Amino acid sequence: MRVLVLSHTYIVDLNCEKLRALAHLSPDITVRVGVPRRWSPGGVQNRLIESQGWEDGNFRLVPLGNFSQNHQGLLGFGPDLVTLMREFRPQVIQVEQGAKSLAYTQTITLNRLLGLNAKNVFFTWWNLPYALKFPVSWLESYNLRHTDGLVAGNQDGADVLRQRGYQGPYRVMPQLGVDETRFFPQSQPDLAQQLNIPEDTFVVGFVGRFVAEKGLLTLCDALASLKDHPQPWVLLLLGRGDLKDTLQANVAAAGLSDQVRWVESVPHADVPSYINLMDTLVLPSETTYQFKTLTSVGWKEQFGHVLIEAMACAVPVIGSDSGEIPHVIQDAGLVFPEGNAAALADRLRLLLENPSQRQTLAERGYSRAITHYTNTALAKELLAFYQDLGVNP
């Protein structure tokens, strides 16, 4: 099976692990990943990454000349994409830039012009309803009409595209898996001492952006109601963002300053150590979108990758019911109605007072992460989907 994947996501080598795992599943599977030769992450003009090609067995990363260096939907590739497709002759072409992307239109058209008869597949994270004007509406319609398979990062994304007219097969799975060689259970007594966290203290953790939609104000309100709980606890906040000043003010007003540990940023390689300090990781995301005539404004949790990282570390998770979170957690953690501080406090109290429940959820979460969300597990699921589309090694 020859698989060609195109996306700006894979300019980061660490993000390639799922596709590298796919190439290692069988000697009959060959994977080529095309990435923009030059790209500005986050659309930041003065931060330009120049991609470097590399290979590992049947996996190869191929930098391609590109148009637009900071807009996902407008990303397109130069003549070297034609050369790659003609020489590699893929059986599957997967473009991971969404339903309306020019790159997907480009590969669909080249697939037909070159007579490759490859299956056209695309990936999307987008999980909010939307409306479009011409010519973007035509572009999306063309792409969906010629799609053989959809990989959606969340169930809402698949449902939205059903509403947009797509009726073909789809699979719900995240774009990136968790690396179980980095995220695994490990004691962190030295780090606890460094952060002044006394032994036998219950650690409530959050990892991510300090922004309103992540529900951190709700988390603070929930913990304020547990201020005098007989079980000592601290809140470990790992991240940064515009909400930090407001958070600090709320923490101080609630008299919780001594119970909060702030860690602004750490190298990505050190994140597993901090997660392993936690007795529970909380992702209290809150949906903010409002559907308008021609666009959707706001946000809804698309997946919550930190959940599977914590689960792989055997750390019990608590999440709101925003977006994909309940589907990720299922019965391997606790879910509460988004924005409901009292309900979140109940979930926290349950874990504070029941070590056996913490252990049960830790075991369930670890099993779910290892079974469903490692890069190898996702590679196997992706292969099964390609086979369902009629492509075989």
Summarize the structure.
With 393 residues, this protein is an alpha/beta fold. The protein is 35% helix and 21% strand. Strands 5-6-2-1-9-10-11-12 form an 8-stranded mixed sheet, sandwiched between helices. A 6-stranded parallel sheet has the order 15-14-13-16-19-20, with helices on both faces.
Describe the protein's architecture and organization:
With 393 residues, the protein is α/β, with parallel strands linked by helices. It has 2 domains: 2-177 and 374-388, 3-Layer(aba) Sandwich (Rossmann fold), CATH 3.40.50.2000; 189-372, Glycogen Phosphorylase B (Rossmann fold), CATH 3.40.50. It has helices spanning 17-24, 79-88, 102-113, 136-145, 155-163, 189-194, 216-224, 244-253, 271-275, 305-312, 325-329, 341-353, 355-372, 375-388; strands spanning 2-6, 30-36, 38-39, 49-50, 54-56, 59-64, 66-67, 76-77, 92-95, 119-124, 149-152, 170-172, 202-209, 233-240, 260-263, 280-283, 290-291, 296-297, 317-320, 334-336. It has an 8-stranded mixed sheet, with helices on both faces. Helix 1 (17-24) crosses helix 14, helix 7 crosses helix 12 (341-353) and helix 10 packs across helix 13. The protein is elongated, with a radius of gyration of 22 Å. 43% of the residues are buried. The mean pLDDT is 95.
